[in-house]
Write a structure and sequence with these properties.
158 residues, mainly alpha, two-stranded antiparallel ribbon, 45% helix
Length: 158
């Protein structure tokens, strides 16, 4: 899945911190895949700070973000489902400020498109389907299977 710097950071935040034992390793691997190489970290030059409201913030080199662009990030089914659930939960959560449903922010828009609307699990399911022999995967012509001999049924007119 192609993700840019901001999307990778947000995905790491969306992944659950607490889960069952079976998913711990899968989510750790997803976090590793979403993280940055030493060269990318050096170029991005992350700076942590605090905003006027006292909330932690991060800044980084915007030019490096453009240069890095979208990277192909390998995610398995479990992290994809966790990110999808987090995005759907944000969409359904009550906004205390407006009284309406929806806590999605502008930075979630592209992730919502990639994880919910363009559901990557559908593509994964398609690519893992078993294709029966004879359907000619990437062949110019389908492979023909030998025909089974037909049993003749006796005529029961007596």
């Amino acid at each position: 899945m192609k993700l840019n710097v901001l999307e990778r950071l947000i995905c790491q935040q969306l992944l659950p911190q607490e889960t069952n034992f079976a998913n711990l390793k899968l989510l750790r691997k997803a976090r590793e895949n979403l993280s940055f190489t030493e060269e990318q970290l050096e170029a991005l030059d992350f700076k942590d700070g605090v905003n006027a409201e006292g909330k932690p913030t991060s800044r980084w080199n915007q030019e490096a973000m453009v240069e890095i662009g979208e990277q192909d990030i390998k995610l398995t089914v479990t992290p994809i489902k966790a990110i999808q659930k987090a995005l759907k939960d944000l969409e359904e959560e009550d906004n205390k400020k407006t009284g309406e449903k929806g806590m999605l922010k502008p930075e979630h828009e592209t992730l919502y498109q990639k994880f919910i609307i363009d559901d990557p699990l559908e593509e994964l399911e398609e690519s893992s389907k078993v294709i029966p022999i004879g359907e000619g995967v990437n062949d110019e012509e389908p492979v023909k299977q030998p025909e089974e001999p037909k049993e003749e049924t006796p005529n029961k007119s007596a």
